[in-house]
């Protein structure tokens, strides 16, 4: 996510049943259990290896997974596999009729379970074709009680029908466009405003989106466009398939009178959309996407997703967002933003956080890629000089009181954009280029379509060097004060090294730390 602050604003599951690679499921399970937060429930303590679990009485799934910042996000008792979201949307009235079909596996004997949902009124819920009781509680809880309890290991299907007028969230989910269209964007929550789901980074799914809209309106979403067919008089239905595992806030839909740009990056198809108005001026920028992805592949390995592109809106958003395969771009988007949001396709989308304390895995890497690595590798700039200038600015901004790991709820999207890229550059100079670049690429590839945490990243990098990194990591990731000089100025960042690197004229023209302001 890239945040823009306007200057004038006051403002056990059988492999055959899985819809994702087996390796990913094993990874997600291992990560979840190691955190004490599980999207997949462990066997009861009185049944070693789950052997007697089937004899347990059915119980409700939990109404949250205990994320330190958002404890009610996600739900226990099942593992979602696939969402099929079909909507009919009328732009002039903002009225939406939806049918969400959720395929899941029961991870305990379930008497009832929750979905995360904050959208329009629910008309009916069915489980395995049978009407189910339901109720809504709290901010986003849809409680479902099936007619018959669901046994451990059973795959089941939930169908939720809903309809109503969607309000404008202003960038916290369903958002209106000036043209009368709409799109979904927001972090860490967005999807609950337009479909029910298990809204946790720990439960990745595949996704089908089918949107019926009036003729003349187009639909963009995640993945690959599968079909576009007539749907009666004056309407058509566009279907998108996201076959790579995805989480809630990274899913999107955009409905507008778009123009399109089709490109190719190697074997990856790129399809981009431009809303009426100022977004039309961004086509030349988007034409740079193939070269940006080629650059990022050199750093982090092959592009991890089935497709790419972008959705350029004409709504005055304060952020752009790394929605999977196709980021949402605000009108102020520039090349730095393009690089940042597409670095997220590796860091944030393919490798997702384990919980929101780990947000540096997303933002620190995206910012380092855009703010230091691209100007260094592509534009020939001196990376250490960029670091030095940014460090002086960071001192003035007072970024040191907020740690990068576990910054606290409400602080997730603050110092990750400034202190974050500084941390990664200092780490690079502390352990050396060969260790650093091999480690980050291997980490990204090893956690592809899975989840990871900052403690795991620390442990992984430490395994690649004999140098003790405890002090360095503690100072940069957990510290609430300026790191000691030995960690601020390692290697070529030392005074002697900097004396050999004269200041570049006009070097401050490239943005740094633009994640929290413009």
From TrEMBL:
Biased composition (Low complexity): 42-62
Domain Aminopeptidase N-like N-terminal: 81-250
Domain Peptidase M1 membrane alanine aminopeptidase: 336-476
Pfam families linked to this entry: Peptidase_M1 (PF01433), Peptidase_M1_N (PF17900)
Keyword terms, alphabetized: Signal
GO MF entries: metallopeptidase activity; zinc ion binding
Stretches for region Disordered: 42-71, 487-518
InterPro entries noted in UniProt: Aminopeptidase_N-like_N, Aminopeptidase_N-like_N_sf, Peptidase_M1_aminopeptidases, Peptidase_M1_dom, Peptidase_M4/M1_CTD_sf
Signal peptide: 1-41
Full protein name: Peptidase M1-like protein
Organism encoding this protein: Nocardia tenerifensis
Lineage: Bacteria, Bacillati, Actinomycetota, Actinomycetes, Mycobacteriales
